[in-house]
Write a structure and sequence with these properties.
Elements (H helix, E strand, L loop, with lengths): L3 H9 L9 H18 L2 H25 L1 H7 L5 E2 H8 L3 H12 L4 E5 L2 E4 L1 H8 L1 H5 L8
Antiparallel strand pairs: 1-3, 2-3
Keywords: Methyltransferase, S-adenosyl-L-methionine, Transferase
Protein name: O-methyltransferase domain-containing protein
GO biological process, one term: methylation
């Protein structure tokens, strides 16, 4: 069995380009999901189900509705502070900061400096694909 440090290092090197094909990527996702379920304790699972998932969904929906992702990508998709994102969307910077911090904790945006974030492929996909963004509760817009 690999050492804890070797295992963590190997996992940190993974990305969607680590696989030769989609089938291999999906097999890895399945194996990683199973591995996470084996190391989580019951309280970890409850925390994820009852707090993290609903809070992340609510934050994502609010950011979509405020136009944050779309405006961010339209502005070049580079690193932005929460104040800059708020300015782009004419929204409250404190609100944007709180929402972005929540999704940053789920690695959905990447914090590059204090209060500065860069978008991930997920953000870019939500900005480009309204049907994908609608999965976050936007079905009432139809």
């Amino acid at each position: 069995m690999p050492s804890e440090n070797n295992l963590i290092e190997a996992l940190q090197c993974l990305d969607d380009k680590s696989f030769n094909n989609e089938a291999g990527r999906l097999r890895a996702v399945e194996a990683l999901t199973l591995a996470v379920s084996k190391i989580q304790r019951p309280w970890d699972i409850v925390w994820q189900h009852c707090w993290v998932n609903p809070a992340t969904t609510a934050c994502t929906k609010t950011l979509i509705d405020a136009g944050v992702f779309a405006k961010w990508v339209e502005a070049g998709g580079g690193d932005k502070t929460c104040a800059e994102l708020a300015e782009l969307t004419k929204t409250d910077p404190v609100l944007i900061r709180r929402l972005i911090r929540q999704i940053s904790g789920q690695n959905l945006v990447i914090e590059t400096a204090e209060d500065t974030y860069k978008p991930t492929p997920w953000v870019k996909a939500l900005a480009a694909d309204q049907a994908l963004a609608n999965v976050y509760g936007g079905l009432y817009h139809f």
